[in-house]
Amino acid sequence: MKIAHIAPPWIAIPPKNYGGTENVIYNIVEEQVAQGHDVTLFAPGDAKTSARLVSFFPRSLIDAGVPWQAHLKSYYHTYKSIEYIKEHHFDIVHSHLSSSADMYTFPLSLQLGTPHVATLHSRFPFDRVQEWSGDADDFFLEWIKQTPLIAISENARAEVKLPVNIIGVVPHGLPMQQFKPTVNQAEDFLVWLGRFVPEKGAHHAISIAKATGMRLVLAGTIDRHIASSVDYFERAIKPQLDDRQIKYIGPVNTREKIDLLSRARVFLNPIEWEEPFGMVMIEAMAVGCPVISFARGAAPEVVAHGKSGYLVKDIKEMKWAMSQLDKIDRKQVRPM
Fold first, then answer.
1. For residue range 200-209, what is the model confidence (pLDDT) as tens digits?
2. 77 shares its domain with 143
3. Considering 105, 106, 142, 194, which has the largest number of Cβ atoms within 10 A of its Cβ?
4. How confident is the model at residue 16 (pLDDT cuts 50, 70, 90)?
């Protein structure tokens, strides 16, 4: 098949450190190329891909210093991608909806003669800037309803209240030949990995570490373009860091992430929101690291309670789950 992927232009593919949607797109594209499909990836020029790369500017927007709220270059990328597709033959177009600027794809692709499917990587509403949200999603419905959507979990599908056309659920996957444990024996520390925002729960991970006396390694990104992310880190996280029990090591790339999760005793996922999937959970389990997660969002679909980790409802239950970790066989955590 001749497949076109329109990637969001904000974060490099694959991402240099954090970027769930971008990792997913990279893995899908590489696997489709490996299966013999003719794949074209529309992404900024810093993408690394085995597919044919079509770019309209050299650097992903965040790396170029463009804040999330500045949509013009994102619009240009989407418009030029669709114009290119109109002038060339493709069997299917796959777009990816993860931030508000990606919504432009729907009106722009309306007259596209090629079949078009979009994966819903995030949650409605997309008309939002930090804590503010508007009602523009309702205005976009006349175009969104005409595009088949794929959800990434049953929970994500159930969370959609708008009358859109969700045709199925396709959970994320991983290249298991890449995600292999780097050690035979885990070390005695906890790990949290993600974006520093309250709903990701790094502050809860710190509470668990202090309650159990175990070391905690925090890894991930502080989005300097989002004031609330910076404020959360400075207020709730930074004062707790001592470089002994509670340590922040900064963002990690894929190789570093695989090694960190391989060595960790457990990955803590104390989320405070209905996360549509949670890539780090399957990345941890792929290298044999059990997961303890609040039972929210897609976590109950991802974690097998008592086998690959534990699903809990609060900090008290998370502390209990810590005491049960010896019952988890790391060889059974990693799917074969």
1. 999 999 999 9
2. yes
3. 105
4. confident
Is residue 182 domain-resident? Answer: no
One-letter amino acid at 20 equals G
Q: Which long-range contacts (CB under 8 A, 24 or more apart) does 43-50 make?
A: 43/5, 43/7, 43/9, 43/13, 44/9, 44/12, 44/77, 46/12, 47/7, 47/12, 47/13, 48/12, 48/13, 48/14, 49/13
In percent, the amount of the chain with pLDDT more than 70 equals 99
Q: Helix 20-34 to helix 279-286 angle, to the nearest 10 degrees?
A: 60
The model's pTM: 0.94
Residues 264 and 299 in one domain: yes
Closest CA to 156 of 68, 277, 270: 277
CATH number at 68 reads 3.40.50.11930
180 lies in a domain? no
Quote the domain boundaries for residue 146: 2-169
Q: Which of 169, 200, 217 is the last residue of a domain?
A: 169
Mean pLDDT of all residues belonging to the chain: 96
3-state secondary structure 164-199: CCEEEECCCCCCCCCCCCCCCCCCCEEEEEEECCHH
Provide the domain count of the chain: 2
Residue 278 resides in a domain:
yes
Residues 196 and 153 in one domain: no
pLDDT tens by residue, 278-328: 999 999 999 999 999 999 999 999 999 999 999 999 999 999 999 999 999
Look up residue 259 and give its two tokens. Answer: 């090694």
Backbone angles phi, psi at 28, to 5 degrees: -65, -50
